[in-house]
Design goal:
single chain; 518 residues; alpha/beta; seven-stranded mixed sheet; 18 helices; 38% helix; 22% strand; disordered N terminus; binds nicotinamide-adenine-dinucleotide
């Protein structure tokens, strides 16, 4: 049994900068051989904490070969045994919640309460995957014609890959690998190179749970590794989560190479606040959903669309709440919002605080005034509020992915709907109102994949599926839940009869279903 490393934050911080994050192939850490590596920072201090191996084509090929070899035996392993292993994986992740959260805090920067929330959400996906005996049940129709039965079975695809973003290093991988391996596939994970350590820690837990070597592999890398995955002939399907330009590239290239691809992209999530809404409640929700995890969530509220005369009181109520948000490192128990992932990203986010006002927006709160932005080496930016934003502005047209909340003021509900309709992203949205009829109409009208009614972050529970529309998702199937099972399996329909050979004869007619054997 593998010994599970216990990385409390303090110990992790003390590790030398030269520490290397290796690949995980065939049940063991494997040092990279490409000669290339990428920097991994501690975003709270700005220090270079470790280097991650970046795979070459040959290293990707080696991992795929291992997975391909492991697949037939894993696929043939009974559903009962696979379920037992899924339960053990679930229990080990549960036991090691705090350790996983500590790695998230040190590499991503999110504060411990948020990191623990990420692990808890991932656990729900693993719990869903423990239901695999029920989820893989097919349909059976007896006697569709005389002596003929028809049934459907679901079979794994083979070697499948998951490519994940930096913002949920544990959760997004758990969206994918739980269902994928429970269905009987062998899995290659290519995590974000910005915070890669969680994936290797999870790999150790999977091994300890009894998952056979080779069924779960981690290949670290950048565009080189991703592009090799996209064209590798032995990879059957790719599940991707990241920004829209890369999601589009992954979808187009992967499908051009004959693969099944689901590619979830970026977001610009609007929260519509109607004039009858409870202003305090709407302000609490907007602030929580905009600044949690420093706005680095694809489900963050990035735009409040204030309808009619609610705008003035709502902007005031949001502004009032902002000084109360404690920005700081995860090591400070008071911190509610941590740093951004890299200095480059932080500076890009801050640049919208210049471009927005230059194009006519009103900078109500400027996160660059925060002491940690000015004096810390960490990648901090305080919370920012931009009012009177319009759809033409650069700050609105781009996904900012940081702690910047924008307010668009519109006169009517119809104007609010037009703003949302005209936006290329359609991941999540929310409406705040006390009018059930208006909320029902919004749910009916809005062309967005996930909708909240007085709920600002409408992430579906693990037994529904997650995903947006338009430029927020390329492909047909949403992530995890029932659609995740569909994504990671082929359906096969069997038509069967056991006739008496003495009744057999040559018959050249085409038989529709109902005339079989009649
Ligand atoms: P990203 O697109 O930069 O990276 C995602 C993955 O793609 C990483 O594994 C990365 O190594 C790889 N990659 C990056 N550049 C590449 C290239 N040129 N060619 C091939 N592969 C490449 O995204 P990110 O910055 O890590 O994550 C933030 C983005 O992810 C945001 O846009 C956010 O909205 C989105 N996101 C979406 C969802 C969703 O469910 N829709 C969830 C989380 C994050």
């Amino acid at each position: 049994m593998t010994r599970i490393a216990q990385p409390p934050v303090a110990e992790a911080e003390a590790k030398p900068a030269a520490e290397r994050v290796n690949h995980w192939i065939n049940g063991a850490r494997v040092a990279g051989t490409s000669g290339r590596s990428g920097p991994v920072y501690n975003p709270a201090t700005g220090e270079l904490a470790r280097q991650v191996d970046l795979a070459s084509n040959e290293e990707v090929d080696a991992a795929v070969a291992v997975a391909k070899k492991a697949f037939p035996k894993w696929r043939a392993t009974s559903i009962g045994k696979r379920t037992e292993i899924m339960f053990r994986i679930r229990n080990l992740v549960d036991t090691h919640r705090a350790d996983i959260a500590a790695i998230l805090t040190r590499e991503h920067g999110k504060v411990p309460s948020d990191a623990l929330g990420e692990v808890a959400a991932g656990l729900e996906n693993l719990e869903f995957a423990t239901g695999i005996p029920h989820l893989l049940k097919g349909g059976f129709s007896e006697q569709v014609s005389k002596g003929i039965d028809v049934y459907q079975i679901r079979q794994p695809l083979g070697v499948v890959a998951g490519i994940t973003p930096f913002n949920f290093p544990a959760l997004v991988s758990m969206w994918m690998f739980g269902n994928a391996i429970a269905c009987g596939n062998a899995f290659i994970l290519k995590p974000s190179e910005k915070d890669p350590s969680t994936s290797v820690y999870l790999a150790e837990l999977l091994k300890e749970a009894g998952l056979p070597d080779g069924v779960f592999n981690v290949v670290h890398g950048d565009k080189v590794a991703v592009d090799r995955i996209l064209e590798h002939p032995d990879i059957a399907a790719i599940s991707f989560v990241g920004s829209t330009p890369i999601a589009r590239h992954v979808y187009e290239t992967g499908t051009a190479h004959g693969k099944r691809v689901q590619a979830l992209g970026g977001a610009k999530n609007h929260m519509v606040v109607l004039p009858d809404a409870d202003v305090g409640m709407a302000a609490d929700a907007a602030v929580s959903a905009a600044y949690g995890s420093a706005g680095e969530r694809c489900v963050a509220i990035s735009v409040v669309v204030a309808v009619g005369d609610v705008a003035d009181p709502l902007v005031s109520a949001i502004e009032e709440r902002l000084p109360g948000i404690h920005v700081g490192p995860g090591s400070d128990p008071e911190s509610e919002m941590g740093p951004l992932i890299t200095r480059e990203h932080r500076d890009k986010v801050a640049s919208y605080l210049d471009s927005g006002p230059a194009q006519g927006a009103e900078l109500v709160v400027d996160g660059r005034q925060h002491v940690l932005y000015r004096e810390s080496d960490g990648f901090f930016l305080g919370v920012s509020l931009l009012d009177r934003v319009t759809p033409e502005m650069e700050c609105y047209r781009n996904e900012i992915f940081g702690p910047v909340l924008e307010v668009i003021r519109v006169p009517t509900y119809a104007d609010a709907m037009k703003v949302i309709d005209d936006n290329p992203y359609a991941n999540g949205t929310a409406i705040f109102t006390r009018d059930g009829g208006a909320a029902r109409q919004f749910q009916f009208d809005v062309k967005v994949g996930m909708v909240g009614i007085n709920v600002p972050i409408p992430v579906p529970v693990a037994y529904y599926s997650f995903g947006g529309w338009k430029s927020s998702l390329f492909g047909d199937l949403h992530m995890y839940g029932p659609e995740g099972i569909q994504f990671f399996t082929h359906a096969k329909v069997v038509t069967s009869r056991w006739p008496d050979p003495s009744t057999s004869k040559v018959d050249l007619r085409f038989h529709g279903t109902s005339s079989h054997g009649v």
